[in-house]
Specification:
transmembrane; hydrolase; 264 residues
Length: 264
């Protein structure tokens, strides 16, 4: 019995160590592995993942934006460096929990289910659903990325209801998301074609475009939330460096002088 438990424990340790090993994940993107470094599986995908960290370094971000850019950026870089199972799950679950936090903070109150009367209750429901989804994600890990991208469809549904208030920013957000998802799909399902073209970097472009799309989309959702929750603050949208440019970095300005504390 003693030797059985020792053997079982050794086997479990080896199995545990295996999920941290290079290329233990079933997911492998189109970029050639170890082409630019013997220690980095997907060099350009890893570098583009760190683009999210640069966004944090050069911007004065609040706590949610810190989590939404830095955490997935770090875990995504780790995943593309190793293509390990642990890296994959950290990458995908960090995105899931960031989305859940965004729902808790900004999901329009008027779209709550009829049995929910306040944001605190809604946040508890989101928490329970996120915990359940986290556990389910280990059952079929290869399906996680597809499920995460489906949240974009729900985002489009919310925009269809609210977009008249910020039509320009809504169009930019949707356009960037469509470009990003097109790169993701092209890399996932058209790899052989892009290899023939000697261009295997669509997933790298996805990382760049999705970071920009999230920056635009989170500003849009925060603006719509301010209109719904604290309309007396007179929220408005401005673009850096110039409002008249067709594309710019969006930010919210509060033109009202009244107290602007959000009621949860």
């Amino acid at each position: 019995d003693f030797f059985f438990f020792v053997f079982q424990g050794t086997y479990s340790m080896e199995k545990m160590a295996g999920v941290f090993s290079y290329q233990s994940s079933d997911i492998d993107w189109c970029e050639d592995n170890y082409r630019h470094s013997e220690n980095v599986a997907e060099f350009f995908n890893m570098v583009r993942s760190e683009h999210a960290l640069l966004h944090y370094i050069f911007e004065d971000l609040e706590t949610y934006n810190y989590l939404s850019f830095v955490s997935p950026g770090l875990f995504s870089a780790y995943f593309h460096m190793t293509l390990s199972f642990v890296g994959q799950m950290l990458d995908e679950l960090s995105i899931l929990w960031v989305i859940a936090a965004g729902y808790s903070l900004w999901f329009p109150r008027k779209l709550f289910p009829s049995f929910i009367k306040d944001r605190q209750t809604f946040s508890k429901l989101v928490l329970v659903m996120t915990v359940i989804t986290t556990l389910i994600s280990f059952v079929k890990p290869n399906a996680n990325a597809y499920a995460l991208n489906c949240f974009g469809l729900h985002f489009l549904y919310m925009l269809a209801i609210e977009m008249r208030r910020a039509l320009r920013l809504a169009k930019l957000s949707v356009g960037l998301w469509v470009l990003a998802i097109s790169c993701w799909v092209g890399d996932r399902f058209g790899c052989s074609f892009w290899q023939k073209m000697n261009f295997c970097y669509l997933h790298s472009l996805w990382h760049i475009l999705i970071v920009i799309a999230v920056a635009y989309g989170s500003t849009l959702i925060a603006y719509l939330d301010a209109n719904n929750e604290i309309p007396y603050s007179l929220p408005g949208l401005q673009y850096w460096p110039c409002d008249k440019w067709p594309v710019g970095l969006p930010h919210i300005v509060l033109k009202g002088t009244a107290k602007t504390r959000k009621r949860c």
